[in-house]
Design a protein that fits this description.
Elements lengths: L1 E3 L9 E3 L3 E2 L2 E6 L12 E4 L5 E2 L12 E4 L5 E2 L12 E6 L2 E6 L12 E2 L2
Parallel strand pairs: 1-4, 2-5, 4-6, 5-7, 6-8, 7-9, 8-11
Antiparallel strand pairs: 3-4, 9-10
Length: 117
């Protein structure tokens, strides 16, 4: 499987992580993968991703919306720290969508087993 380790030279405002690459699933967003990427406004994470590493989106001050597939089980320490524009976090759960607008706190669904603080 693959781990997303960075954004490379991408300057898109919307990032959609694919389910698979070269026939193998993308299962993780690595530690600090998108750290300080201030251009990203929206990100879509597929069902194949089971883990978001620590500081993965740290300092992504323009992210307003994150849509996460239902495979997520682990969110690392400070994964969304300093995401000051974050207003909507949507976690897909099978055929139902859970979403949270204007985040002041987070509700976590029962499939998440580890949250590092």
């Amino acid at each position: 499987y693959y781990i997303v380790s960075g954004i490379g030279d991408c300057t898109d405002k919307k990032v959609v992580i694919p389910y698979a690459y070269d026939g193998l699933p993308i299962k993780e967003i690595g530690a600090s993968a998108f750290k300080d990427c201030t251009l990203i406004e929206n990100i879509v994470i597929p069902n194949s991703v089971i883990s978001i590493g620590e500081h993965a989106f740290y300092g992504c001050t323009s992210i307003a919306t994150i849509i996460v597939g239902d495979g997520l089980t682990t969110i690392g320490q400070s994964a969304f720290y300093k995401c000051t524009s974050l207003q909507t976090l949507r976690v897909k759960q099978g055929t139902r969508d859970w979403w949270y607008a204007r985040l002041t706190d987070a509700s976590i669904q029962n499939n998440v087993t580890i949250i590092e603080v």
